[in-house]
Amino acid sequence: MWAKIEDKRPPVPRRWFRKRTMLFLGITSVLSAAATYALTSPQHGRRALVLDGVQGSPTWAQYSPFRSLEAYEVPSGCSVTQVNHIERHGARFPTDGATKRIRSAVDKLVAAGTYTNETLSFLSDYTYDLGVSHLLPFGAAQANDSGATSYERYAHLLNADSLPFVRASGSERVIDTAQNWTEGFSLASNHVYSPPLSVILSEEGNDTLDDNLCANIGDSDAQTEEWIAAYAPPITTRLNADAPGANLTDADIYNLMSLCAFETLAKETESDFCPLFTAEEFLAFAYVGDLDKYYGTGYGQELGPVQGVGYINELIARLTGQPVQDATQTNSTLDSDPATFPLDRALYADFSHDNQMIAIYAALGLFPQDAPLSTAGPEEGRTWKVDELVPFSARMVTEKFVCDGDATEYVRILVNDAVQPLAFCGDGSGRCTVEAFVESQTYARENGQGDWEKCFV
């Protein structure tokens, strides 16, 4: 059986990936003409969209494509002994809700019919033709590249009896991302190591890879709407003057700006919507994403971080080789079974969503802020930048390692290849002993210190 990633544009060369046997637990300025693939590794045929010069890129917040923030290096004299990899799905089409909002805004512009600014002239014969929610070919390529990179970094951990253990949350785009990652991994090894996707976690039940269980969780609507109302009005006025009769609202502006990102990634050439906005306006657009994630499942949401606790307790179990101790969103049946939650692997790969990864960051204590994010506008010096935290194909990697002449086991965390300081368990250098790291995770080890119960009362 072969699975094809849905594509709504002319064919481009790409791999088609076979679905392996798996355990389903659903218990069931502007880039001209053609953006091109950059072959970053001819050996594996990897490709990456060249975005330099696309208006607003990479400041598309959670709609930005992954980029490595630092050169990857293992600490001198040390060797990695275990890897825990969690990755957001690759680039996708807009969700159903976003599609409806984008279409509404586009329809207003198209219905105007007459344009006083030539940058809008493309609308005279424009047709919106994006799909909904599915992984893009570019997103599949991101995952394939990620799998190949993981093999190249960690091949020394593998043998025939210890393949990577791979899990995915149950959304189609997440499953497809995981399968493309495993194919990239296999291809990089010349098919010597072909890890299966072993567990798919139903998003209808306990799932540490999806933020779906906290019934009383709040949202970020108030904060994002306040900022949109602050930055968008001049743009709304300008575009309504350029397209008389369109009657765009401030909310429409955000949706049209997001279309720049979605269409560019889907068609792999710059969208005509990108030049409608300035680079400075895209910085304001991106801050909507920063606020959304901070007040959605991050530090600004009382019951946001608790949704990352289950994953952290699973991480602690893997690092220590001890059974999972958790009373939040883990599936105790799966986590107590070596077939569905082994503790003897050197490489684990999980596939998830951006909101869940934000919750994990916050529960861990990564990217702390001196003050809550302001709805009056972005502040210099903040580390909470969503295009660096959870772009498409974002990844957090927790490595366990040992060093020459030292029997102590250490841990470090990399987010999009940037080593995190881990000031909460060490000296800020990014290195903690495993013992100190586990000890630092009091919030997770104590099941959210009462926050989990607040989800349901």
UniProtKB/TrEMBL annotation:
Superkingdom of this protein's organism: Eukaryota
Query: Which Gene Ontology cellular-component terms appear in the entry?
Result: extracellular region
Q: Which reaction is recorded as catalysed by this protein?
A: 1D-myo-inositol 1,2,5,6-tetrakisphosphate + H2O = 1D-myo-inositol 1,2,6-trisphosphate + phosphate; 1D-myo-inositol 1,2-bisphosphate + H2O = 1D-myo-inositol 2-phosphate + phosphate; 1D-myo-inositol 1,2,6-trisphosphate + H2O = 1D-myo-inositol 1,2-bisphosphate + phosphate; 1D-myo-inositol hexakisphosphate + H2O = 1D-myo-inositol 1,2,4,5,6-pentakisphosphate + phosphate
What the entry lists under InterPro entries is as follows: Acid_Pase_AS, His_Pase_clade-2, His_PPase_superfam, Histidine_acid_Pase_euk
* GO terms of molecular function: acid phosphatase activity; inositol hexakisphosphate 3-phosphatase activity
Q: Where is the active site?
A: H89 (nucleophile), D354 (proton donor)
Pfam families noted in UniProt: His_Phos_2 (PF00328)
Keywords in alphabetical order, please: Disulfide bond, Glycoprotein, Hydrolase, Secreted
Q: Write out the annotated subcellular location.
A: Secreted
> Subunit details for this protein?
Monomer.
Report the PANTHER family cross-referenced here: 3-PHYTASE B, MULTIPLE INOSITOL POLYPHOSPHATE PHOSPHATASE-RELATED
Q: What is this protein's record name?
A: Phytase A
